[in-house]
Amino acid sequence: DTYSTALPLGFYLTAGGRIERIERKHNDSLGLPDDKVSRQDFRARITRPLNLGRYLTINPGLSARYTHYNRGMIDRKDRYRKVATATCSAQTSLSRIYKAKIGWANIDGIKHVIEPRIDYENTYHLTALPGELHQFDEVDSIDRTEKTTFSLTNRLDARRKVGGALKVLNIADWRLRIPYYPKPDRDNNGGRYGPLENRLEISLLPQLTIRLDTQHDIEEEKLLKESGALTYTHADLWQLHLGDTYAPGEGHTGTLGFAASLTKKWQASLRIQHNLTSGRYVKKTYTLTRKFHCWIMEFGLIDDREEDAPTFTLMVSPVALFKKQKLQLTEESIYLK
Q1: What is the model's pTM?
Q2: What is the pLDDT of residue 122?
Q3: Residue of 99, 133, 203, 291 with fewest CB within 10 Å of its CB?
Q4: What is the number of H-type helices and E-type strands within the chain?
Q5: Is the pLDDT at 321 greater than 60, yes or no?
Q6: Mean pLDDT of the chain
Q7: How do 56-69 and 208-217 pair as beta strands?
């Protein structure tokens, strides 16, 4: 889990760690031994935001990561990986307020915000390559890379009446982002640019959100992925999520999710992914969450068609880390407010 705090002289520290025992069982017909790895992963990042005038903010940073594996991919011996990454971001914000009244949405004013941003990231020190480690998730796939990401956000914030009080809420968010690789042969299979990501999120009503996402390869001029989602939340008591994802060559998948607060301390959720091409389900995820005084326990069951047996999960975490987390269905773990 992640911990953040302010340091003297305007510095900020973000740190976190995970201690895990991971096991992957292979199909018996493959004749491969099961992967069993103990992994301890710790990370820390220090940043120092600098405000240059009214319109420009620069935020340089330096992060370090240390990961220990009880066995490697080849020699089966302990592996100790150290990672160092330098980062820097520059952004500005421009805005204008418009008088607008939309009666059915209780809106009487709109603010248009434009936020250009540039992010630089360079992982310049790495003591173990991905091919030397068992690959379970993004922690194991860290490699030397250098990229600059350009992004542009257009946001509409509305002043609306909620429960008799005026509040400023986001009603539309449009984001464009594209990474640039100065060393394309090493970092991006020869391509100077990564996929152009386009995300549009609309929430004209507080309880209803519509999201559209696309990814395009601008060098080969082709669609990589597109997805859409509709989410309805009822007073933080229950939430319904409908999603659709299409990727050429990979298939067409629909998602149905539902989460509900059973009592003040118990919450339950169901998430089903269905292959719309073959007509068969891809994955079913069930979770049951119990909130205690100062910590959260979550039981999970994942039924994945590609696996031989279902997966059971148990997660325990301090509740203070999730005090700002609202109901969501975009991840495997579901937390209610």
Answers
A1: 0.77
A2: 97
A3: 99
A4: 1, 19
A5: no
A6: 87
A7: unpaired
